[in-house]
Amino acid sequence: MKVLVINCGSSSIKYELFDMDGEQVLAKGLVERIGSDRSIVNHRITGQEPWVETAEILDHRQGLNRVLSLLVDREQGVLKSIDEVDAVGHRVVHGGETFAESVLIDEKVIQAIRENIDLAPLHNPPNLSGIDAARHHLPHAQHAAVFDTAFHQTMPDYAYMYALPRVLYQKHKVRRYGFHGTSHQYVTRRAARMLNRSLEEMNLISCHIGNGASCTAVQGGRSVDTSMGMTPLEGLMMGTRSGDIDPAIVPFVMAKEELTLAEVNSMMNKHSGLMGVSGLSGDMREITEAAFEGNERGRLALEMYTYRLRKTIGAYAAAMNGVDALIFTAGVGENSSLVREWTCRDLTYLGVELDPEKNAELPEGPQIISTPESRVAVLVIPTDEELMIARETQRLAREE
Question: Are 120 and 200 in the same domain?
Answer without folding.
Answer: no
